[in-house]
Write a structure and sequence with these properties.
By secondary structure, the chain is α/β, with parallel strands linked by helices. It folds into four domains: 130 residues, 3-Layer(aba) Sandwich (Rossmann fold); 90 residues, Thrombin, subunit H; 127 residues, no CATH class; 165 residues, Response regulator (Rossmann fold). It is 40% helix and 21% strand. The strands form three sheets. Strands 6, 7, 8, 9, 10, 11, 17, 18, 19, 20, 21, 22 and 23 form a 13-stranded antiparallel β-sheet that branches. A five-stranded parallel β-sheet has the order 2-1-3-4-5, with helices on both faces. A five-stranded parallel β-sheet has the order 13-12-14-15-16. Strand 15, helix 12 and strand 16 form a beta-alpha-beta unit.
Length: 655
């Protein structure tokens, strides 16, 4: 009996969750959509890996082409896993699809940073098509659905994250470039009874020292209460054309109204400010900021396998990377206090050396003795270490050069598995005193000990500074600074947990919709957007993922604006039907108008023929009466009847 050799999968699809039925349907849809492709499918149960970073390590090792994360199971850990995955440089090309069991869970998925979110239902086309467009753009093909061409103003909704609040400002992160000094509207979950206004003044904008995976961070000043309309200007507009006397009376009354409205406004403003200050002070007791940021750079991140607690449980912000980008964007962007790096992986070098074992022969091809083999292995390992050390030193030199170019930023750089160099040697060579060489392998416990020492040292340094400052000020003016305390030197901040709805906000920006099908749309605006997820509330609440408009081209210039293509997701069956109806109404509008015009023309022709026949009948009857006299019997008339109309049936069919 012949043995059939199994073919190696071309594309790997992973599903993390426990919905066997949905996963079975999803696999069959992949095969149906791409029958010539050999897929490898892997189902990982929701609880197979705990804590969640162990699953991250498994995905990192296997590197699937597309990953589905089912948020119907293990929601909290899966949200954290999604965040880890989307921050890792080596996995940026892997689309992550969030699956939710109801529309109300979409927001959780969006803020986890996944590329697409789909509501589990009977609709499967987009669930397969969307990530395929990102993972395999050439093989994805096109969604062959009716596409409506139109132009309509709309608002692109961009999600923001709020990191903390002070009594007068909030610190947020987002992808929109805001203009300093401008007034914006930001929709937040802060109760309107606490802060009635949704308007803020942009105090500052920056692109560094961020916590989330956004492009910018902002300090926004609360306006607290919207100022009343200018009654005088309003009255002046309304009194154009009136007599001077009547105009003067109206303007005078408007000034009185304005005076009263402003007094009421200032009273309300003072009250809101006071209440908000007290609220921030109360919330601070439950606020636990993570002051120290750590970035760990290791090609394999194997140390995670030895960690038994979740990474977010540590009192430090921990970021993981297998590699750094060429321009060290992640260092500039997040500004870690400690950068922990595996100088080189000794075990990996040994593995590479063992792989070359068969090369250890004499020049004439005869095998080496055991002693000779061990000697050759030692030489090979030494050469691999030398090459790795050279590459690691080059990388370290580039990092130090980069951080030196940043103003007021000097992180500690800790090198693990650095066997042949002392800290002082590297410090002197690079003229950078904040490098620590450690001969042991990278361990999270060692990193957290360093982070703890760093934080304690910084806290002590700050306490000494404040103590000396208070003494200095009290010495200069004892009366003025008699009640000064250390708390006066610390900004009152309420740090908001990423799990809290208070951390979520959104900003609207005007765009023009140009086309739409049930799966995708195009729009134009004057912003240079990146490939990211946005939202739209027309014709239904939906999410949009901006994808390249053509191969290798994210956007096209469209006059003064940019033209974008986006895939539609985060809709259930009901919303999907609404989108279809909207598209079809526009798509078939020309045909409907044509059929309507044809129907009207037919009816008019029918009426004309009936009228003509009636006139001919009356003429015949009149002539007959004249010939036969007054007593002649009238001729049989023609009975009017509705003519069957195939056009109506055709119109129904087209609908």
């Amino acid at each position: 009996m012949a043995v059939t050799k199994s073919l190696k999968p071309e594309k790997w699809i992973f599903y993390v969750g426990d919905d066997d039925g949905y996963w079975a349907s999803l696999k069959s849809r992949f095969k149906l959509a791409h029958p010539k492709t050999i897929f490898g499918f892997r189902h990982i149960a929701a609880n197979d890996f705990e804590p969640y970073q162990l699953l991250f390590l498994e995905i990192l090792k296997k590197r699937p082409d597309i990953l589905y994360l089912d948020f119907s199971f293990n929601l909290g850990p899966h949200l954290k896993l999604a965040n880890l995955l989307k921050l890792e440089n080596s996995l940026r090309s892997m689309p992550v699809v969030g699956l939710v069991d109801k529309k109300s869970k979409v927001e959780d998925s969006i803020f986890a940073g996944v590329d697409f979110t789909h509501v589990k239902c009977g609709e499967f086309h987009d669930v397969v098509f969307d990530p395929y467009v990102l993972a395999f753009p050439k093989a994805a093909g096109e969604a062959k659905f009716a596409k409506a061409q139109f132009h309509r103003d709309a608002s692109l909704i961009s999600d923001f994250r709020i990191g903390y609040m002070t009594p007068t400002t909030l610190h947020a992160e987002g992808d929109m470039m805001l203009e300093e000094g401008s007034i914006i509207e930001l929709n937040t979950n802060i109760p309107k009874t606490l802060v009635p206004s949704r308007r803020y003044r942009v105090k500052s904008v920056d692109d560094k020292n961020l916590f989330y995976n956004y492009r910018y961070c902002y300090d926004l000043e609360f306006l607290f209460v919207d100022e009343p309309e200018n009654e005088v200007e309003k009255a002046e507009d309304e009194t154009i054309g009136l007599g001077e006397e009547q105009k003067a009376i109206i303007i005078k009354q408007a000034k009185e109204n304005q005076k009263y409205a402003m007094a009421e406004y200032h009273g309300k403003l003072d009250k809101v400010k006071k209440n908000f200050y007290n609220w921030v002070m109360e919330q601070m007791s439950s606020s636990h900021p993570k002051k120290t940021k750590v970035m760990i750079v290791d090609e394999k991140l194997d140390f995670i396998g030895r960690v038994t607690q979740s990474l977010d449980s540590f009192p430090y912000t921990i970021r993981l990377q297998t590699r750094l980008s060429d321009d060290f964007y992640e260092i500039y962007h997040t500004r870690p206090d400690i950068i922990a790096m595996q100088f080189y992986d000794v075990e990996e070098l040994k593995r590479q050396m063992e792989e070359s074992y068969d090369k250890f022969t004499h020049n004439d091809g005869t095998p080496l003795s055991d002693e000779e083999i061990e000697e050759e292995k030692s030489k090979a390992l030494s050469e691999l270490k030398r090459q790795s050390e050279s590459a690691a030193l080059d990388l370290l030199s580039a990092i130090v050069k980069k951080v030196k170019s940043f103003e007021d930023y000097r992180p500690f750089i800790v090198l693990f598995s650095c066997e042949n160099y002392e800290s002082s040697t590297i410090q002197d060579s690079l003229k950078y005193p904040y490098v620590i060489a450690n001969k042991s392998i990278l361990k999270l416990s060692t990193v957290t000990e360093l982070a703890n020492a760093f934080q304690e040292k910084n806290d002590l340094k700050f306490d000494i500074y404040v103590e000396n400052k208070i003494k200095e000020l009290k010495a200069s003016d004892p009366m003025k600074y008699s009640y000064l305390t250390p708390d006066d030197f610390t900004e009152k901040r309420y740090y908001i947990s990423r799990q809290s709805t208070l951390s979520r906000a959104n900003f609207r920006y005007p765009i023009t919709l140009n086309s739409m099908s049930e799966s995708e749309l195009t729009f134009s605006c004057d912003l240079e957007l990146r490939q990211d997820v946005y939202r739209l509330d027309f014709p239904v609440d939906m999410s949009l993922t901006v994808v390249p408009i053509s191969e290798g081209v994210l956007r096209e210039k469209d006059g003064k604006d940019f033209l974008y293509r986006a895939l539609i997701h985060s809709v259930g069956e009901i919303e999907k039907k609404t989108v279809r109806k909207f598209v079809n109404e526009i798509f078939f509008s020309d045909l409907t108008e044509k059929r309507k015009a044809e129907m009207e023309a037919f009816k008019n022709l029918n009426e004309q023929e009936k009228q003509k026949r009636q006139e001919e009948l009356e003429q015949e009857q009149s002539e007959a009466q004249e010939a036969d006299g007054d007593n002649a019997a009238p001729q049989d008339g023609v009975i009017d009847a509705e003519v069957p109309t195939d056009v109506e049936e055709e119109e129904k069919d087209s609908e």
